[in-house]
Write a structure and sequence with these properties.
Rossmann fold; about 20% strand; about 40% helix; six-stranded parallel sheet; 2 domains; alpha/beta
Length: about 325
Amino acid sequence: MPPNVLLAGARWYGRTTDFVRRALRDAGCKVHTFYYRVQHDSGLAPARWRSESNDRLLGAARRWRPELVLLLKGEFLSAGSVAALRGMGITMASWWFDDPRPWTDYWSAGRTLDHVFIFDRAYVPWLRRVSKGRVSYLPLGFDPDSYRPVTNSVRPRWDVTFVGTPYPNRVRLLSGLSSFRLRLVGPGWRRHPELVWASIDERPTLRPSQVRRLYAQSAMVLNIHHPQSITAPNQRVFELAGSAAFQLTDHKSALREFFALGEEIVTYRGPRDLERKLAYYLKHPKERRAIAAKACRRAHAEHTYAHRVQELLSRTGC
């Protein structure tokens, strides 16, 4: 019998909370969703933000009496909340999509969680030192209802598109691609004069259907991981694959666990390698389409959030 789940997650542009909720419901779970605001968007002082978030979490648990509380990060968690939830006989699990190491207060409170899931295997040894619960590697995935191929044919308008935030490593890499028709999508790109030559779209939030259309309008889509992705792919790797977009992504050692390198996904190692591969695949559209189609089939068959949730439920014993 699938468990009654209280899912706690932030409202953020990646919509991961919504995707995991849908996967839990598809697995037959009764799901109650508690959305919390991240501290820097809440307008509250840290202590008040933490107190109010914990009060709301406990209130939701008392109302709905779940068998499993699943925190998608849940960085507000206090030791008092852990004790109260444990007193209700609730299994507690967290799934982290970020580097967990800066959140020392969380791990002081959450060291007795029953299960801790982490998106990148590189963090497992550290987590096993600070947590008494069972620590498991559980990669990210994608929502197949939101990220699927665009059905009508779209002629590419751009050579390369990048969707995301202008972190310094991304600005440095992209500023060297002036020989390509480059489109950058996301807030903050106009603040970088070294990219004034690129086409910039600074819409802060986009629906998945809009993002898929952006992918389809580009011959190639670039993925540049945040430095916190040490060995494992981010969510965008799977979303691009599920959308049948041809992607070039910076190399991560765990990628080979999910896709055949060079056949289902193409990686690059540094600026020169990226420029060389962009130039090559721009001239070989049939090869691009074949690789993207293989990645799409693999993603939908093996890497949706439904697949990840089934694994999570199995490991928690729920």
